[in-house]
Amino acid sequence: MTSFLTGKSILITGGTGSIGSILTKRSLLDKAKIIRIFSNDENGLHELESQLKPHKSLEFIFGDIKDEKSVDDAAKDIDIVFHAAALKHVDRCEVFPFEAVMTNVMGTKKLIKSSIKEKIKKVILISTDKAVNQIGVMGATKLLGEKLITAEAFHKKSTTIFTSVRFGNVFQTRGSILPRIENQIKKGGPISLTDKRMIRFFMTQEEAVELILSATKLAKGGETFVLKMPLIKLNDLFECLKEILAPKYGFKKSQIKTKLVGIRPGEKLVEFLLTKFEMEHALETKDFFIIPSLNKQTKNLKYPGAKKPTRINNYFENLKPISKQELTKILKKIYN
Question: Can you give the pTM of this predicted structure?
Answer without folding.
Answer: 0.92
